[in-house]
Structures are given as structure tokens and as C-alpha cells.
Write a structure and sequence with these properties.
Two copies of one chain form a homodimer. The first copy, chain A, is of the alpha/beta class. The first copy, chain A, contains 15 helices and nine strands. The first copy, chain A, has one domain (2-335): TIM Barrel. Chains A and B meet through helix 9 of A and helix 9 of B.
Chain lengths: 336, 336
């Protein structure tokens, strides 16, 4: 996994799934029944157990740290909650210098349980399985803070971006350092690579992404420069050329993009990750198998390829199908 | 407008806005306060008045028929409602042959008020202003019917598409004839061009779009072959090459795609429409003006260009800004 993310083409692509540690697993739902999402993200034992569940079950090649994009914001004292069925809700949206001033640096003590979990997970993981650190990118964090929660149209976010560019850049720079530091601390504690999620970057066109977002993602990723860095966003087909240039070693590909096109657009400077449509997991097995083989084949043209979905696992997914996909990918050697 | 949509490059691009007849206008909100969305869509006087409101106010070059994607479904007796803040809700989702069998042909009597409105609008419109007919594309109609309402992940829709391809194609063919007939009736009544909305086609990758959707959009558009045909979907950057081939004369461009890229991808066989980000209308005027000029300039490279947003007008939009955009576009002659 680490080799693939660094840009090496392997005979058999390594595989993991975004949101593999989550609601598709009955053992996860059982654990979470007694703990809120936020409480779980600050409890070392729960983080450890939840992170390891899909590794045990599916035999994936990577464990993604169980966390949430807003964890470092909560850790520095932002008043927020994660509401089931809705997402993060911020008590006081940040739309001014005063709001920005509240966002202090992230310190090691703020995320101690997370770092304890990273160490515990590394202790339990087979050495061949990579522990992938996790953080949200500055744009996505900013969109939650500015809108006050999940958004459809990002009107407040874009209004600040276009209308108050100085405040915008100051806010994103702040968030970049918070997010970057969160990654750096995870690496110090034992994460062997990281994924930076810019979930909502797909709401932007390329010009705006390059001007208003990319420099800050680059700042965040600079904190992780000694390890391989996957960078992913939903609906980012128009941005693929730029996602790598934000400082990644591996570009996560949204499920809408044909993997052959993606490999061409990303070029030979970066590995790729992806990109089975998570909705495809509800299809009959022969349809899934055909698509998995096509993606693996297309991925062979890239500098390196990590097999994954092209968006997170949906809660209703049959986990047995995920396990079967892992087995299939692992069976596909270079001569297949 | 008709010339541009047919593929002629004009000195000054014609302009209209998706959802121009809608909640951004106080005169619309006043009318709608007393009538539900569905009732409004079947009342000739209301359709006429609402369709004309943005033409009077903004001096746009096109009037888009006020309607909703589910109108022809309601017209043939599907039990559905349009719920404020949510969208269309279908009482009994269609997921079987039995459900499909309920979808009968659309007859002229089913949509008489709509056709009366088309005639009335044509009577009132300046001859230089085009009346654009309106229908939803088979995939988007199918997704509402199968999911039972708006969806995030289209799991039921994709499950049928991959798992029951015969039922899928039969359903989409059925919807294509309903949608196509709705367009044909509007044209007979006086619509000079049409826009087919495939709102949710952006949820598909290109392979699936070509195999499961495009043939049916082509059937629908074949009913309108004697007039210019705009075809638009949200988030369809990956599909632009295929949207035109579905039988359009003009490809609607989502706001995320850089207009220069769009013109290149669409090629010289089709005109383009778009694509200012509707969220940009909340920006300061100089930022808006710069982007409008860039889009108009890029559009000059196309076979024809209709200026529009790259998604619908948002309800919170200041209508004064829309009027100003129309004035700006109209001021931009070819030598500007």
C-alpha cells in the first residue's frame, strides 16, 4: 500500500475502502449504539477497535484511522456536534475576523486519545497492513464552519471567497495549519501514510480551486511530506490535474470518472486511487466483477494504483460483497 | 436564441437563466403564496404569468415554460406530490413490471392547461424572444419513480440498472415516449425550441450513461427534431461529449467545467449553453463581471453560445443582479 501510494506499480493492486470503518458493519453498529459519533472519535479504545474491524473482516491492505473531518476543530474548542443523518453542525458559523480569531493552533494534548489509538492500532496491525492517517482539507473544513453545517450550494462559502478574499485566505491558512498539524501528529504516532479529504472541492471550478483552495491544501499536505499522501474529493473530475499538484503523491478518483481517462489526466507524476461506484455494490456479482477487472486493468497504466471505491461505502452495503471485492482484487495478478 | 441554439455564432450571445421563473422573484413568490407547485403547473393563467415574469423584468432573450419535471407523470395519473423543501415524492415507487404497466401514454388532454399556456405566452411574447419548451429526461424521471423521491446515492435506481437491465430499458423507453410526447405537444402549441433536463445524469459515469441512458434521451429528443434542442444535466463534466450525441443541438454546461474546456470537449458539432456559477451571483459585481466576460469570450470558440448559468438560479438570489448580468451580456458585442 505504501509503495503503491508512493508511485510504484505493483503486480496486484493493494485495496481498501473509504468509510470501510463504518455503518456497513454490524460490529460497528453494535459498538456505536452506545456512543455518539463525536465521543467515539475521542475514545482511544473505540477508535482502535473500529479502525481494526474492517481489516479483520475484509483483509484489506490498509486501515484508515476512524475519525471525522471536524475532529481537530472540536479538539481546539469549536462548539459543534455531529448530528445523525445530517452531519456536523457548528453552533456559531465563522464569517468574520472575530470568528477566525477563535481558531487556535492544534496542540498534542488536544488529540491525545487519537494518538494513543494510532499507537495501539500500529501495535495490533500486521506489518503488511498500512495505517492511513486522516484529515479534512481546508476548503471542506471552511465550508462547514462558514455554512454552519452541510450545504448544498455553498453560497456563504463562495460569497466570502469572492467577496472577502483576504479573510478567506486567512481562514483557509489557519485551517491548513490545524489540519496539517493533525496529520503530522498522526505520523509521529505511527501512521505510515495519510489521506487528506477535500470532500466538497467538487463544488468548485478549476480556476477558483487553483486560486482559492489549492495553496492551502498544499500547506496542509506539507506537514506530511515524509510519507505518501492520498488526496481525494467527491465530484472532482474537473480538478484531477490540480489535486496532485496540491502536494499529493496519489490522486483519489471520483466514481464518475472513467479510470482510463483519469489515468491520462493525472499523468505519470502521481499514483491513482479508486474508483468503483459504491452504488455498484448493490449490483449482481458478475456486473461488479466485470467493472472491478476494468478498473484494475486501467490502473495498470498509472504510476501506481490503490484499488478503492470512488466515494465512501454506503451504510446499506452488504459487507460480504466488500470482502468478495477484496478477494477478487487480490486474485488479479499482473498477468491476469 | 433559436439561431444560437441551432449552431450559429452570434455577435452578442442570447441569454436566459435556468429557474429564472421562480423564487428569486418577489412577484413569483406573491403568486405562489396562494397555489401549490403542482396546482400552478396545471393552471394556464399561472403558467403564463410566471413564465412571462422574468422576461418582463430581466429582458432575457428566452422564456422557459414554467413547469416541473414530474408534470407529465402527474398528468398520466402517477400519484405524486411536490413537497416544499424536498421535491417530488412518489406515493408508490416503481420497481417492478407491475409499476411500469401503470405508466400509460401521454395524451393531449392530459396537459391541456400547459398547451393553452404555451399558446398564450407566444401571443404575448415579443417575436424576438424565444419560448423554450421543457421536459425532464428519462433517467431523471426514472430516478424519481424508482427512489420514490429525491435521492443522494441512487442506490435503488442503479440496482435496477445493473441488476434488471431488461426492466430498466423498458422503463426508460416508456418514460422517453412520455417525455418526448410532452415536448412534441409543446412544439405543436408554439414552443420554438426545447430544453431536456437530465438533472441527475451527473450521478453516472460515461460507460453507464452511454449504455443505460443515452439511447432513451435520444428517443425523447427525436420527438423535437424539427426545433433546436438544448440538453442539460448537473455535474455532467464527464459526459459532455455524449450529451450532444444524445440528439441535442446545444449542450448545457455545468458551472464546474471551465468554458474553454467545455468548448473543446463539445467540439464543433454542437452549440453550448452556460455556465456562470449561480453562487457567483452573491459575489461583488466586479468579480461577476470579470467571469461573465471570460465565459462570453470562451463561448466565441463554440459553434454557437447561449449565455446562462451553469445550474438554476438560487431562491436567495438578488434579481437585480440577474438583470445586470443580462445588460452586461447584451453589451458585449463581438469586437468587445
Amino acid at each position: 500500500m505504501v509503495a503503491a501510494a508512493s508511485g510504484h506499480q505493483l503486480a496486484t493492486p493493494p485495496v481498501w475502502f473509504m468509510r470501510q470503518a463504518g455503518r456497513s458493519l454490524p460490529e460497528y453498529r453494535a459498538l456505536r449504539a452506545e456512543h455518539t459519533m463525536l465521543a467515539s472519535c475521542f475514545d482511544a479504545e473505540l477508535i482502535t477497535e473500529i479502525t481494526l474491524q474492517p481489516v479483520r473482516r475484509h483483509k484489506v491492505d490498509g486501515a484508515i484511522l476512524f475519525s471525522d473531518i471536524v475532529v481537530p476543530l472540536k479538539a481546539i474548542g469549536v462548539d459543534l456536534d455531529i448530528v445523525a443523518g445530517r452531519g456536523p453542525v457548528i453552533a456559531e458559523p465563522v464569517r468574520s475576523r472575530a470568528g477566525l480569531a477563535q481558531l487556535r493552533d492544534l496542540e498534542i494534548d488536544d488529540v491525545q486519545p487519537v494518538l494513543d489509538a494510532v499507537r495501539a492500532i500500529r501495535g495490533e496491525l500486521d506489518p503488511a497492513t498500512a495505517l492511513i492517517g486522516f484529515a479534512g482539507a481546508p476548503f471542506t473544513l471552511a465550508s462547514y464552519l462558514i455554512e454552519g453545517g452541510p450545504s448544498r450550494n455553498y453560497t456563504h462559502t463562495k460569497a466570502m471567497m469572492y467577496g472577502e478574499p483576504e479573510l478567506w485566505h486567512a481562514l483557509l491558512d489557519r485551517l491548513a495549519h490545524i489540519s496539517g498539524r493533525f496529520l503530522a501528529l498522526q505520523i509521529e504516532a505511527g501512521a505510515q501514510m495519510v489521506q487528506l479529504f477535500d470532500s466538497w472541492a467538487g463544488a468548485l471550478n478549476r480556476r477558483d480551486y487553483v486560486e482559492f483552495v489549492q495553496p492551502h491544501s498544499r500547506t496542509a499536505l506539507s506537514y506530511a511530506s515524509e510519507v505518501p499522501r492520498i488526496h481525494f474529493g467527491v465530484g472532482t473530475g474537473e480538478l484531477l490535474e490540480e489535486i496532485g499538484r496540491a502536494g499529493a503523491t496519489t490522486v483519489g478518483i471520483d466514481f464518475r470518472v472513467d479510470m482510463e481517462d483519469a489515468v491520462r489526466r493525472v499523468g505519470q507524476d502521481y499514483a491513482v486511487q479508486g474508483n468503483l461506484d459504491p452504488a455498484m455494490l448493490f449490483a449482481p456479482w458478475p456486473a461488479i466483477e466485470r467493472r472491478v477487472r476494468e478498473i484494475v486493468e486501467a490502473g495498470r497504466g498509472a504510476r501506481g494504483h490503490i484499488f478503492n471505491l470512488g466515494h465512501g461505502v454506503m451504510p446499506e452495503t452488504d459487507p460480504g460483497v466488500l470482502t468478495r471485492v477484496v478477494e477478487l482484487v487480490h486474485s488479479l495478478g499482473a498477468t491476469a
